[in-house]
Amino acid sequence: MTEFEYAPALESTSILNLQSDYNLFINGKYVPAKTGKRFPTINPATGEAIANVAYADLADVNAAVAAARTAYEKVWGKMPAAERGKYLFRIARILQERAREFAVLETLDNGKPIRESRDTDIPLAAAHFFYHAGWADKLDYAGLGVNPKAHGVVGQIIPWNFPMLMLAWKVAPAVAAGNTVVLKPAETTPLTALLFAEVCQQAGLPAGVVNIVTGDGVTGTHIVSHPDVDKIAFTGSTGVGKAIARAVAATKKSVTLELGGKAANIVYDDAAIDEAVEGIVNGIFFNQGHVCCAGSRLLVQENIQDEVIEKLKRRMSLIRVGNPLDKNTDLGAINSAEQLARITELTSTGDAEGAERWSAPCDLPSKGYWYAPTLFTGVSQTHRIAREEIFGPVLSVLTFRTPAEAIEKANNTPYGLSAGIWSEKGSKVLWTANRLRAGVIWTNTFNKFDPASPFGGYKESGWGREGGRHGLAAYLKGGKN
Amino acid sequence: MITDFSEASLKNFLKTLPPVDQVGAEARAAMLATRSIKTSSKTWAIDTAISMVDLTTLEGADTPGKVRALCAKAVRPDATDPSVPSVGAVCVYNDMVKIARTHLDSIGGKHVPVAAVSTAFPSGRASFAVKKQDTLDALENGAAEIDMVIDRGAFLSGRIGEVFEEIRAIKELCGDKAHLKVILETGELVTLDNVRKASYLGMLAGGDFIKTSTGKVAPAATAPVVLVMLEAVRDFYASTGKRIGVKPAGGIRTTKDAIKQLVLVNETAGSDWLNPQMFRIGASALLNDLLLQRMKMQDGYYASPNYVTLD
Fold first, then answer.
1. Angstroms from A427 CA to nearest CA on chain B
2. Strands (E), A185-226
3. Global pTM value
4. Residue A129 sits in which domain range?
5. Which residues contact A244 (CB under 8 A, 6 or more apart)?
6. What is the value of ipTM here, to two decimals?
């Protein structure tokens, strides 16, 4: 060995108790789908099936909603708030105790690097339960007036990019506020949600408070259109979000939507360049770029473009792409063949429209779904890769000349979920942040999450907030969003 | 990069350096600390780290006997295993240089250089004349490497022309005879912006290495500090074609610490810096932990510390 090559450091999967078939979780019990139908969930790093999962049809969704309604009327809605809080604390502690198991399963089912599931997804999921456990008996002090009320039964539909973390974002505030839940994990990543059901059993959570139905978009439609669901919370694509908004229009249902984004990451010429480069990499290559708030549009001041791009390319060449279970992997597998096809299609329009493509030199595994870290330079506002959410490890680089132009370009998008600002000059940072139309703005950092901090978007990036007091309000009646 | 080395010109140049965001630098260093180095890469890293150790004794109580013992350890770190490489250098005070050089030569250690700490180490609080004489003494006695300290007082009060001039003058004394390592004493410079500026001063003034610390001030070779210094040598090479070495010193006591340093090098400056010509680790206790871990890699179990020699 002449160079420092990192030998494989694989996280063992022996901690998992994988089954060949998984059932739905309704009314505190694992039950098969009424039709007996199942679908496979794939390990995107190999393309092989991990297990078969029950497919929930209308009858199963009806059963889950009925169980949630009964639990709300008979148990959870009446329970003293402090008691509810105890269950949440218990769940949070069990998540910490079983963190490694969850991390390994998440990586297996989703394709994300074990370093991220271990250091980000699972610890943050536990943190959300701890945070909301504390709120359960303090709802009077949430600034919503005295004695705010739960909605009742909440239907929750979550995406595949952070399966367990999005579950925590949804379930923790809902049940802390006194609602009961019917949750549908994404079709390609159902396994951690089903393991979470086991945690609910372990914590002794009353039957029916949390119900988990696995399936596809049709299953989701059954939840959204179910007449006995009081509120819908959805995280996913803007297209589906619009369909949900249409479906619940003129019904009693409340809705929160956390949708797509095309965040601008603005780098001024007085930024700390090395750390900005780290932030750009973190912004777009974290979780393979499968992040709704990803910094997918780099807006770099034109006079430092060459320096930044050179450093960025050097840094991107260091990204370790490969087996997600390897503790040294930085970029894992693309979650599905479908998503890979979408990334490939959108990036080919970048080539066709005249942007210049550069990909980090790396060996991609022969099996599974992979995409090398890629950047496009010479991108203009009119290019599809500057406007549409690619949701992959692909960065579009645009330039600006003045702060005003940076703002104009950053806001020139139907989205408005997040943005980044890189400058060492505090006054300029505040001036910029005040003018950006985005729900979350990071300065001199990116992709930082905390349960106490509300998250959500402007414009087509969504309705409502998740996390913090604002996120809690979305699960209470009388509360302002 | 810069041709006019007047104080005004140097000040202007340092102002053009991009600032360092401390939170970001710490996050990058912390992420790199999660790298898992196992099996063959650990074996490689341990031997590489041994060859990079500047085996050091810098005590008021140093004696010829102590220094000779250190020399023996430096040449053959593990008495039972000749496959263990010699360390990078022996690092001693000025008055011990001759004893170290003579002893090394007599025990087959001609290939192990002697490094002398110089310029009124560790504080640097002496007249310039004394600092120069200090260096000349070390060179005359056979030091092949001079570890000088910068004048932190001058740096912090903005007299960077003085800092530059001292380094330049000491480098001139070293000539072809010795490599110059410039100790920044980052624990006294405190901010990472200062670390970056001082690194550039050291490189521009002719230092062959930039070194974090004397080992007498804490904190010493923290990961963010080493990261910033590695970025400095990387960028300096990109713009001048000149490769400057880096030496973290102080606080690196375990194999794990040392491997983290190698990961920092690998993923910042790159593999061209992963050799004793470009990277050294100033340490004393570290060597024995490296040897114990090396035995563990070979034998599969941890040996008692009594199986490695004290010095």
1. 16
2. 210-212
3. 0.96
4. 21-259+459-477
5. A157, A224, A232, A234, A255, A257
6. 0.94
